[in-house]
UniProtKB/TrEMBL annotation:
This is Aldo/keto reductase family protein. Signal peptide: none annotated. Gene3D superfamilies: NADP-dependent oxidoreductase domain (3.20.20.100). Keywords: NADP, Oxidoreductase. It holds the Pfam family Aldo_ket_red. SUPFAM superfamilies: NAD(P)-linked oxidoreductase (SSF51430). Residues 15-314 form the NADP-dependent oxidoreductase domain. Belongs to the shaker potassium channel beta subunit family.
Length: 334
């Protein structure tokens, strides 16, 4: 495993991070989830990403139990706040009330005194940004989080938050967007802004919810038990990639992966890590062996010629429109 600085901060994180969205507390039983966490640790992964909303807070609790007994200073634990975690009007968003209550709930479930990174899971257009950043400043200054990050924010939103963070003397160091060979919407605006500000990307879904494993075949039904058949949320996210024109082009990547001595999934993860603004790629798993296999993408350097051939194959179907990032800001309070 290789390690990278998170943006321009001094924090080193494993360039493959383990995430438990759609798995812990939901798709995967706790024994299997714990086995996946153990496999991540065995592979040298020290960075673990979760969120209070995952599996209605259960994912944080499962991760906390799985990491219990590990040396805390040797781990980087990330979580997020924004989406509803209860029925009340204030159990959501980025108000001061919700942030201050949510950090305490997350720490309790994770069984830790602090998180290394506390992230705004979406931008809240219904709360003044000043209120949000001042609440984050209090979280940092109280020692409950070391760094602050955002997820799926636009370049303009990130710039305004970064300016306030500097005034408040807190480290805004990360952005967590979706990014893969097939979903490249951050490249035009978000990445240049973050490079300028010293903010690193922690990318989620580098395998495009499993499409870039090559297991989904054009004209065929999705494999039983796959993400595309998951009725707990996974199927909704993967649907956009299950068009035959996309699946046909993904199949063309198999020879390129073999040429590089990689599986198709490893090639997909390694591809995201070729972007110098990417600090880590988040991988999830339902089986321990998946973690070890994906972790082998760490340290891979892809030949420029191979990168060009990937571009030629996928350019007609890759999503690059930066307005897709703008669309991630909820139009109504969740």
């Amino acid at each position: 495993m290789e390690y990278r600085h998170l943006g321009s901060s001094g924090l080193l994180i494993s360039e493959i991070a383990y995430g438990n969205w759609l798995t812990h507390g939901s798709q995967v039983e706790e024994e299997a989830a714990t086995a996946c966490v153990r496999a991540a640790l065995d592979a040298g992964i020290t960075t673990f990403d979760t969120a209070d909303v995952y599996a209605e807070t259960r994912a944080e609790a499962v991760l906390g139990r799985a990491l219990k007994g590990e040396r805390r200073a040797g781990l980087e634990i990330f979580t997020k706040v924004y989406w509803p975690t209860g029925p009340g009007r204030n159990d959501r968003g980025l108000s001061r009330k919700h942030i201050m209550e949510s950090i305490d709930g997350s720490l309790r479930r994770l069984q830790t005194d602090y998180v290394d990174l506390y992230q705004a899971h979406r931008y809240d257009r219904f709360t003044p940004l000043e209120e949000t950043m001042e609440a984050f400043a209090d979280v940092v200054h109280s020692g409950k989080a070391h760094y602050i990050g955002v997820s799926e924010w636009t370049a303009d939103q990130i710039r305004r938050a970064h300016a306030l963070a500097r005034e408040l003397r807190i480290p805004l160091v990360s952005s967590q967007p979706q990014y893969s060979m097939l979903w490249r919407v951050i490249e035009a605006e978000v990445v240049p802004a973050c490079e300028e500000l010293g903010i690193g990307q922690i990318v989620w879904s580098p395998i495009a919810q499993g499409v870039l494993t090559g297991k989904y075949l054009p004209g065929a039904q999705p494999p039983a038990g796959s993400r595309a058949t998951d009725d707990k949320g996974g199927a909704n996210f993967i649907r956009r990639f299950l068009r035959d024109e996309v699946l046909e082009r993904v199949q063309l990547l198999h020879p390129l992966a073999a040429e590089a001595g990689l599986t198709l999934a490893q090639l997909a993860v390694a591809w995201t890590l070729q972007n110098p603004n990417v600090s880590a790629a988040i991988v999830g798993a339902s089986r321990p062996e998946q973690v070890g296999e994906n972790a082998k993408a760490s340290g891979v350097r892809l030949d420029p010629g191979l990168m060009a051939r990937i571009e030629e194959i996928l350019a007609p179907v890759a999503v690059t429109d930066p307005l897709q990032t703008h669309a991630q800001t909820p139009a109504q309070r969740p």
